[in-house]
Amino acid sequence: MYKVVERRMIVPNLHELVVEAPAVARSVQPGNFVIVRADENGERVPLSVADWDREAGTVTVIFMQVGASTAKLARLKAGGSIPTFAGPLGQETEIGAFGTVLCIGGCYGIGSVYPVARALKEKGNTVFALLEARSNFLLYWQDRFKEVADRVIEITRDGTKGYKGHLTRLSEILTLEGIKPDRIVVNGCTFQMMKVSEATRPMGIKTMVNMNPIMIDGTGMCGVCRLTVAGATKFACVDGPDFDGHEVDWKEFLNRRRTYNPEEVHPLRKSGCASHF
Ligand SMILES: Cc1cc2nc3c(=O)[nH]c(=O)nc-3n(C[C@H](O)[C@H](O)[C@H](O)COP(=O)(O)OP(=O)(O)OC[C@H]3O[C@@H](n4cnc5c(N)ncnc54)[C@H](O)[C@@H]3O)c2cc1C
Ligand code: FES
């Protein structure tokens, strides 16, 4: 069993979960994920690592409550325990000396792109962070980013903090901020990663995305996380989850992600757990 050190809602619907998992904490790297189960009968939920403390043996993840399993995770309390916290899984994010890197995070991806930004800075890159949310009260961890990034930029859909609107404004924002990235790393919801990839393709800036398909085993055995990248079949859990956003077949990816919606969302509606669906 893995001890829950902390579980708190950091902004509406997004939770920070800190778990005592010394073996994971020892070897985890930016871009890795873990597979978590809230109880013995729970589904296996893949979650990206957002931070860790190697000495204390703890690992932090940020998760959004979207369905039945994340609802169970959202009810965990400090001092409790969970049966599964498997990892680190997946390939780590490539941390090279690229020059100038823009790290974009939205939703839970603000958390998971944080260790990427930190490692890129330690590698000597100039690092800019662009944090995206629907409104100012949904942004978090700005202070942490200020410690590792050369500049932190914010964008909110309603304009309550930073730039107003969507990341489709990326090209304009880069011009206004005077940033010429050699590489962009995007973590967050699928739609956002796809839109950023579309925006950066004409600019010719390599754009790495952190793919989040449905997964079962997370170790390359079931094939559920299959996606097409540069015309070849890849498994996000072992070949990724980071891929070049300009090479991902986004249409196929979005279709595969919707596969279990009737089974996952309808029971929740009936149970009354998911008022937001
Ligand atoms: C490598 C990887 C890393 C991830 N990291 C994080 C993270 O750090 N934080 C976080 O909040 N989520 C992350 N996800 C997504 C997370 O695993 C899902 O949101 C979760 O499994 C949903 O479980 P559920 O039972 O609560 O929802 P379900 O009842 O299974 O689904 C509810 C809704 O969520 C959608 N959904 C289901 N699975 C996924 C998925 N894999 N990605 C996105 N939407 C999904 C469904 O289509 C449905 O609309 C990651 C996924 C992968 C593959
Ligand atoms: S989750 Fe089973 S192969 Fe990737």
Give a description of the structure.
The protein has 277 residues and is of the alpha/beta class. The protein folds into 2 domains: 2-89, Translation factors (Elongation Factor Tu (Ef-tu), domain 3, Beta Barrel); 100-257, 3-Layer(aba) Sandwich (Rossmann fold). 27% of the residues lie in helices and 32% in strands. The chain has 9 helices and 16 strands. It has helices spanning 22-27, 68-73, 109-122, 142-148, 170-177, 190-200, 236-239, 250-257, 261-271; strands spanning 2-11, 14-20, 33-37, 45-53, 58-64, 81-82, 84-89, 100-106, 126-133, 151-156, 163-164, 183-187, 206-210, 226-229, 232-235, 242-244. The strands form 3 sheets. Strands 6-1-2-5-4-3-7 form a 7-stranded antiparallel beta sheet. Strands 11-10-9-8-12-13-16 form a 7-stranded mixed beta sheet, with helices on both faces. 41% of the residues are buried. Residues 215-218, 220-225, 235, 237 line the site of FE2/S2 (inorganic) cluster.
Please outline the helices and strands.
Elements: E1 2-11, E2 14-20, H1 22-27, E3 33-37, E4 45-53, E5 58-64, H2 68-73, E6 81-82, E7 84-89, E8 100-106, H3 109-122, E9 126-133, H4 142-148, E10 151-156, E11 163-164, H5 170-177, E12 183-187, H6 190-200, E13 206-210, E14 226-229, E15 232-235, H7 236-239, E16 242-244, H8 250-257, H9 261-271
Parallel strand pairs: 8-9, 8-12, 9-10, 10-11, 12-13
Antiparallel strand pairs: 1-2, 1-6, 2-5, 3-4, 3-7, 4-5, 13-16, 14-15
This protein binds flavin-adenine dinucleotide and FE2/S2 (inorganic) cluster.
Residues 215-218, 220-225, 235, 237 line the site of FE2/S2 (inorganic) cluster.
